[in-house]
Design goal:
- The chain is an alpha/beta fold and 493 residues long.
- The protein is built from 14 helices and 19 strands.
- An 8-stranded mixed β-sheet has the order 7-8-10-9-13-17-14-15, with helices on both faces. A 6-stranded mixed β-sheet has the order 1-6-5-2-4-3, sandwiched between helices. A 3-stranded mixed β-sheet has the order 11-12-16, covered by helices on one side.
- α4 packs parallel to α5.
- The longest helix is centred in the middle third of the chain and has 26 residues.
- The protein starts with a strand and ends with a helix.
- The model has no long low-confidence stretch (mean pLDDT 97).
């Protein structure tokens, strides 16, 4: 699908749908009024004859309106009484696309008013809404595929809108990169393939190092390596660097991702039902890769590091057993009570390595870490765990601004009792009470006192179904927008 910015007076042709806005109480926007007049009042009559109120997300679809060349008109509700925020325009554009994408028209013309910035946000919304992972569909019928191939966005100054879209498009490309990684099945996207796809980003200006098992063994990463030891696939640690600050030696910020390319649970094997979902268990690593893609794409003025712990958790004759004790890179020993609590074992070494090597300002890890976070928060929030109030505030704000909301959870020291081991420095599970919290407390033992935040995205990494028009069902790419916003608002310049 192609996106173009066009002059505001463009006419939608016979193969096009034309989208215009309505506000609260179904009040028509100036563009909608023009459509209504041209059609002899057809739009107003359609509104009067139905339940359309102009509420956010509502659409009213009018086919073959008399007096207009366009094949259809779609009226999109945005609430409010006139002036519309870029955020609302982004969603309205996505709703318009969802409403007509499979209607048969090949073009969508958006006349949503506003300035260059809102036109760019409309393009951003459409680009995210139009994401589809269809590379493995070879027999899909044409009438099931989206018919819209071009989206034209009317703007007072199309060149200025195109310019404004450049950095947003870089963010969208990062999100789509993450979604593609998350959507790939685990027979294709194993740790080495994941690492290859990240390595292939170097032409964007990123530096990528890949550490294999021998290099990690040398560093003493017994915790991460224990998780991958039952897999035929070699575990990998990917280190991605973006040096965009004026001072190339300035202290970086760091992001760490859980990249379990498939999580069977290992010897503590998961039940069959729903196990296929565990191909998504690298959603944290995908988000970090997508973020680095976005930062490089928009040439962010920041030094940032992304570290991905890439493994496959399999049962096997060589797999680690419940009761095994492993020694992490930090020197701390861990009794592995349950091999299905593997994400924290991967992150333990990835976090320690990151702080040890890069001495960053802070570390933020993203991980599909616990089923318990879904029980706590449902699917609209990711869990935020942190040892730092300032960093938490910034993350909460960024999440709100980007519709990737977080909810802060506590890290009570008293709960550390739950992960005490009789024979090692800790054990890797703390039982059912506060399961996401004890996972967070476990991770905290590997940050060496650095400002740190952990985002448990098990609740948000994928959507089935989705309730956001910019996030189609499936891989969300959750975290890319949020962290890009954090960087842009607080750490660039
Ligand atoms: N990858 C899972 C967490 C998960 C569960 C993500 C459901 C998305 C949906 C993680 O590795 C895991 O298995 N966690 C266990 C921890 C338990 C053994 C302490 C869990 O949540 O059940
Ligand atoms: Mn697991
Ligand atoms: Zn897992």
């Amino acid at each position: 699908m192609r996106i173009e910015f066009v002059p505001a007076d463009i006419q939608a042709g016979a193969n096009a749908a034309l989208a215009v806005l309505a506000y609260e109480a179904a009040a028509l926007s100036p563009e909608a009024k023009a459509v209504n007049e041209a059609s002899g009042g057809a739009l107003a009559r359609a509104v009067a004859g139905g339940r359309f109120t102009g509420a956010k997300g509502q659409t009213l679809d009018l086919a073959a309106p008399a007096g207009l060349e366009a094949a259809r008109v779609v009226l999109v509700g945005v609430d409010g009484v006139g002036a519309v925020e870029p955020e609302a325009i982004e969603q309205a554009a996505a709703h318009a696309y969802q409403a007509v994408k499979a209607s048969g028209v090949s073009e969508l013309v958006l006349k949503l008013g506003g300035d260059a910035e809102t036109a760019a946000r409309a393009a951003f919304g459409v680009k995210l809404a139009a994401y589809r992972f269809d590379k493995y569909r070879t027999t899909e019928k044409a009438e099931k595929k989206p018919s819209v191939t071009v989206v034209k966005i009317a703007a007072a100054d199309p060149a200025k809108a195109a310019k404004a879209f450049e950095s947003l498009e870089a963010v969208a490309d990062g999100i789509l990169f993450a979604r593609d990684l998350v959507s790939e099945p685990a027979n294709i996207l194993h740790p080495e393939e994941f690492a290859r796809r990240v390595k292939a980003l170097e032409p964007m200006g990123l530096q990528v190092e890949i550490l294999g098992e021998a290099a990690m063994a040398k560093l003493g990463m017994g915790s991460l390596l224990g998780v991958g030891q039952g897999s035929r696939r070699e575990s990998q640690l990917a280190v991605i660097r973006w040096t965009g600050a004026a001072d190339k030696a300035a202290q970086p910020i760091a992001f760490v991702g859980k990249g379990v390319c498939f999580d069977t649970g290992g010897i503590s094997i998961k039940p069959a039902e729903g196990m296929e979902d565990m191909k998504w268990d690298m959603g944290g690593a995908a988000a970090v890769a997508g973020l680095m893609h976005a930062l490089a794409g928009r040439k962010a003025k920041v030094n940032a590091v992304g570290v991905l712990g890439l493994v496959e958790n399999m049962p096997d004759g060589a797999a680690q057993r419940p009761g095994d004790v492993v020694t992490s890179m930090s020197g701390q020993t861990i009794e592995v009570i349950n091999t299905d609590a593997e994400g924290r074992l991967v992150l333990a070494d990835a976090l320690w390595y990151t702080q040890d090597r890069f001495k960053p300002k802070f570390m933020i890890d993203l991980a599909t870490l616990t089923g318990a976070i879904i029980i706590s928060l449902g699917h609209d929030y990711a869990g935020l765990f942190s040892n730092n109030d300032g960093l938490s505030e910034k993350l909460l704000e960024a999440g709100k601004a980007e519709r990737e909301p977080l909810w802060r959870m506590p890290l009570p020291a008293a709960y550390e009792k739950q992960i005490e081991s009789p024979i090692a420095d800790m054990k890797n599970i703390g039982g059912r009470p506060g399961g996401s919290i004890t996972a967070g407390l476990f991770l905290q033992k590997f940050v060496n006192g650095l400002p740190w935040a952990h985002l448990d995205i098990a609740s948000t990494a994928w959507r089935k179904p989705s309730n956001d028009p910019t996030v189609p069902d499936g891989a969300a790419g959750f975290g890319v927008r949020l962290l890009n916003r954090l960087v842009a608002d607080a750490y660039e310049g």
